Amino acid sequence: MIQGLCLNCVSSRGVFFILIIVLVAGCTDVPVELPSNQETLAAMRQTNRYFMDKWPDTGAPIEGRKTWPSHIWTRGVYYEGLMALNAVDPQDHYLEYGASWGEAHDWSFRDGITTRNADNQCAGQTYIDLYELGHPKAIIDSVKASIDSMMVTDKIDDWDWIDAIQMAMPVFSKLGRIYEDSSYFERMYDMYAFSKYEEGGGLYNKEDGLWWRDKDYVPPYTEPNGEDCYWSRGNGWVVAALVKVLEDIPEDEPHRDEYLADLKAMLAALIKVQREDGFWNASLHDPRNYGGPEATGTSLFVYGMAWGINNGVVDSATYYQPMARAWDALLTESVHANGFLGYVQSTGKEPSTGQPVTYDKVPDFEDYGLGCFLLAGSEVLKLNR
Question: What local confidence, expressed as pLDDT, does residue 159 receive?
């Protein structure tokens, strides 16, 4: 009903146009159904095949503005997604592709086992996954040695940017679970807490339920509209890390409640700033600062929401529709016919990076965007099972 409108005073033609306006205004409230599992799995296979065909040699260096080894974080995130795809669509060639990547790098990290850099350690997530799947070639000695070398020191300030939480924190939680050693859980919490409460005065803003990417974006830094700068993909990394850690740690782990509270607060904050088309902007609190669909943050938020629904952590009545709108948008607006993913923001740390982000533009790296997409799809598939 339109407040204050007297329909008896309006002509029949006027009533018709009023009804049209009301119907159009209500279109955004029309429930969105998730694509079928067949559609979701087809999209995941299609996008993954595009990538595997493009990169048949898993050890080949990545050529761009310079040359990188193929076990940097961008590729590590892809393999996280591949392992998630294999969990819902087991295929020997997925495992062989991952194992050949690990072998090409001697199951170790860029800069060796002495590295403390979270980006370098990201590859360890897949090495561990393959080891746990019983792949005969998988070795995790170097992964354990690298993390153990960090734990014999008192240094806990390595994760001074929030991307690092996703890159390395799940390596700690996986090792803690495998070896039944809570010291890994304690150290990862100490490092997480330093980032959250101390780095740059604390990178987590409890008031907004979101994270500043690093100390350079803590206020007084603001977006053009005067709001705090919350980068979509950066917050997506934290969502993904919390999901992965909650999967690993036991129910009675002392910090579990805090991780869970942080995840729920973030998801509650995110549904308030979702675009009408289902995507999220690169800038979460300033939609006019390089606004437009962005697939990586959107995928990671779908991953978190779908996992939350699947595990009874969040209310399906509240989160199903935002998650469904986002996944539908990714499948219909981001996935190309050949499997290429559009709207993937290039590597960086803020909304302005790699702009403009468009349907056709190829980002500087294609691998991490696909990893995020596959993580999301792996949880979406579980909703209809």
Answer: 98
Q: Which domains does the chain have, with CATH numbers?
A: 67-383 (1.50.10.10)
Q: 3-class DSSP state for residue 230?
A: coil
Q: Are strands 67-68 and 62-63 parallel, antiparallel or unpaired?
A: antiparallel
The token duo for 118 is: 């979270």
Give 204's strand partners: 211
* pLDDT score of 382: 96
Give, for 68, the enclosing helix (H) or strand (E): strand 67-68
pLDDT at 353: 96
Q: Please provide the DSSP assignment of 203-223 as one string.
A: SEETTTTEE-SBGGGSTT---
Residues 77, 79, 83, 89, Cα dihedral to 10°:
110
The answer to whether the beta carbons of residues 214 and 349 sit under 8 Å apart is yes
CA quadruple 258, 263, 265, 266: dihedral sign: positive
Q: Which helix (H) or strand (E) holds 38?
A: helix 37-54
Alpha-carbon gap, residue 116 to 111, rounded angstroms = 9
The active-site residue, picked from 129, 163, 262, 367, is 163
What is the radius of gyration, based on Cα positions, of the chain? 22
Instruction: Report mean pLDDT in 10-residue bins for the chain, 385 residues.
Output: 34 36 46 94 98 98 95 98 98 98 98 98 98 98 98 98 98 98 98 98 98 98 98 98 98 98 98 98 97 98 98 98 98 98 98 97 97 98 86
Helical H segments across the chain, by residue range = 12-25, 37-54, 73-88, 92-104, 118-121, 123-132, 141-151, 163-179, 182-193, 232-248, 256-271, 295-310, 316-329, 367-383
Give the Cα separation of 89 and 204 in Å (integer).
Answer: 36
| The pLDDT of residue 30 | 83
Q: Is 24 exposed, middle or buried (0-12, 13-18, 19+ CB in 10 A)?
A: exposed
pLDDT for residue 14: 39
- Residue 43 CA to residue 56 CA, distance in Å, equals 20
Is the separation of the CB atoms in 311 and 358 below 8 Å? no
Residues with Cβ < 8 Å from 133, sequence gap 6 or more?
86, 95
Q: What is the largest CA-CA distance in the chain?
A: 81
Q: Which of helix, strand or coil describes residue 335?
A: strand
Reply yes or no on whether 157 is catalytic.
no
